[in-house]
Design a protein that fits this description.
Number of helices: 7
Structural class: alpha+beta
Radius of gyration: 29 Å
Strand order of the largest sheet: 9-8-12-10-11
Number of strands: 12
Distance between the termini: 9 Å
Largest sheet: 5 strands, mixed
Helix content: 25-40%
Strand content: 15-25%
Order of helices and strands: HHEHEEEEEHEEEHEEEHH
């Protein structure tokens, strides 16, 4: 009789431990209150401007390519710059993007030296604004020119509890924290979604902020739209912390103990019959 009671107690404890609370909050879902959040005007208008040290790829094309050769000096169509959208070398061919064109580094004054046109200021301008200005200047020399401007070295770093840590290049120079986490393969189940750290270096000044991925007000955070060189750090939750402190053989010990208790209960039950 005791054996049957012991077996019943053990089985009951296992069922209780595995029971799921239907009313428990799902901590894995992002932006859970999106319907209740209004996007502020500042968030809608938040765009990145060209920064000192940015590497711009500028290619001018036209119906008659001979006409635009002076504006593409020292460039051959065989020259390509390849950037990977995956973590530093883990899968180098996946998500690879190829950029073609002469490259220009924005100097400390926010200028670049452009063939024929001379020094051009990029300060305070977005890629689109600079592209439109450059095209306007080009129309003095070329009929219906096509101007392509890309940012080759816009990189962000994602570390911590994500599936693929590493540096990521964003070709169009625009990315949100959700874009970056998507490139990193999303957070693991052990990532702390309510407290993600963003470290930013802008104009020589280092700042930081924390965002809650579960709260849709994230959209209105100054750290929602990323800037050049941002580092995103995802901390581990309590489950990961507790797991890391446990003896790696704990699970094995518990399994062995459970089997032993069950075996003893069965033996006692047989002897009582």
């Amino acid at each position: 009789m005791r054996g049957k009671i012991l077996t019943l107690v053990l089985a009951s404890s296992l069922v209780v431990s595995c029971k799921v609370n239907p009313n428990a909050k799902n901590d894995l879902n992002y932006m859970q209150n999106i319907e209740q959040v209004a996007i502020s005007a500042s968030a809608k208008n938040s765009v990145n401007t060209i920064q000192v040290g940015d590497q711009l790829i500028i290619l001018i094309t036209a119906k008659d390519m001979d006409v635009v050769k002076p504006f593409n000096q020292n460039y051959s169509s065989s020259e390509l710059i390849q950037t990977n959208a995956t973590a530093g070398g883990n899968t180098p061919n996946q998500g690879a993007t190829t950029l073609a064109g002469p490259s220009y580094i924005v100097d400390a004054n926010g200028d670049i030296d452009f063939p024929v046109l001379g020094r051009l200021s990029t300060s305070g301008k977005t890629l689109v604004e600079f592209k439109d200005e450059l095209r306007t200047r080009m129309t003095k020399y070329v009929i219906n020119p096509t101007v392509n401007v890309k940012l080759a070295n816009f990189k962000v770093t994602v570390l911590g509890e994500v599936n693929r840590q590493g540096d990521y290049t964003v070709v169009n120079g625009q990315a949100t924290i959700l874009n970056a986490l998507g490139l990193a393969g999303d957070l693991t189940q052990f990532g702390k979604r309510e407290d993600v750290l963003v470290i930013r270096t802008e104009n020589g000044e280092v700042t930081h902020g924390r965002v809650n991925l579960q709260d849709a007000n994230l959209i209105n955070s100054p750290y929602y739209n990323l800037k050049q060189g941002d580092a995103i750090i995802v901390s581990s939750n309590k489950v990961r912390d507790l797991t890391s402190k446990q003896n790696p053989n704990t699970t094995l010990y518990l399994t062995a103990a459970s089997i032993a208790v069950t075996a003893i209960a069965v033996v006692i039950s047989l002897f009582k019959k």
